[in-house]
Design a protein that fits this description.
alpha/beta; Arc Repressor Mutant, subunit A; Rossmann fold; three-stranded antiparallel beta sheet; 9 helices; about 35% helix; about 25% strand; elongated
């Protein structure tokens, strides 16, 4: 006769389905916390859930792959729905958009200019608003590819104005192409004031025109310091052509419409953010 089976009195192994459920619940709570707070840190999440930081990093990596959040240094941010821009509106139309915000931004930018400096001024409807504030600053050299900036600077400042050569783009009102790039290669200037058509955390600075993007990159390479001038309506938008990462600039001047979490992330990247 066979002996009766021995009863196993030891505790069984944890059911893997329970572990999977716990992971799923934790990740769901992480998503909720990110959306509610605007950002989360690995160390804080590890303490809250009583798990290791390695586990939390695995959770965040998984959630980023699923498009539920954006990984940040030491934590995560909520996903911002990015609006795609497909074309550059005409200059006359752009001049009438967000005028008051542009003027405040330009006035703040002009305070960063000092006598005797060399400046590159991009072809932007915010950048041109700097001109009235530069009238009393002596010894400036202004380099630009924007026809309206060159004319305004000649008429209203005592600066030495250099207009970059090239083919005139009708929509941008600026010179573009290989000749413009070649002139920029010969220059090393103190400060670039750069406009943007679109920008977001994931893609950085983008544009809808490849020639414009090439000139902006050449301007960045020719400047010791770059300050980005952009109203908040440009935030969380992206275009077809990559211009540069956000870290290509050292500072951003914008208006109060910039979301708080976005400002925190930009500052964590090392950018000085001035809100006016």
């Amino acid at each position: 006769m066979m002996p009766p089976p021995t009863k196993n009195t030891s505790k069984g192994s944890p059911d893997p389905r329970d572990a999977s459920l716990m992971t799923s619940q934790r990740r769901g709570q992480i998503i909720a916390q990110v959306r509610e707070q605007g950002s989360v840190r690995v160390t804080d999440l590890a303490k809250r859930f009583g798990v290791s930081e390695v586990t939390i990093r695995t959770d965040l990596d998984h959630l980023e792959r699923e498009g539920k959040l954006v990984r940040d240094r030491g934590g995560a941010l909520p996903v911002v729905m990015t609006r795609t821009v497909t074309s550059l509106p005409g200059l006359d139309h752009r001049m009438n958009l967000h005028v008051e915000a542009k003027r405040r931004i330009a006035a703040a930018a002009a305070k960063r200019v000092h006598a005797g400096q060399s400046l590159i001024m991009d072809a932007g409807t915010t950048v041109i608003e700097m001109i009235p504030h530069l009238a009393t600053i002596e010894g400036l050299t202004i380099i630009t590819n924007a026809l309206n900036v060159a004319l305004a600077a000649t008429a209203h400042t005592s600066a030495n104005v250099i207009l970059l050569g090239g083919v005139v783009g009708r929509d941008s009102g600026s010179t573009l192409g290989s000749r413009t790039e070649e002139m920029l290669k010969e220059l090393l200037v103190d400060h670039l004031f750069l406009g943007a058509q679109a920008m977001d955390l994931q893609h950085g600075l983008t544009d809808t025109n490849m020639e414009i993007a090439q000139i902006k990159r050449a301007m960045i390479r020719s400047a010791r310091r770059t300050t980005l001038l952009s109203d908040s309506q440009k935030w969380a938008t992206s275009g077809l052509v990559r211009v540069a990462p956000l870290t290509a600039a050292q500072a951003l001047i914008t208006d109060h419409g910039l979301p708080g979490p976005a400002r925190q992330e930009l500052e964590s990247l090392g950018l000085e953010v001035e809100v006016v």
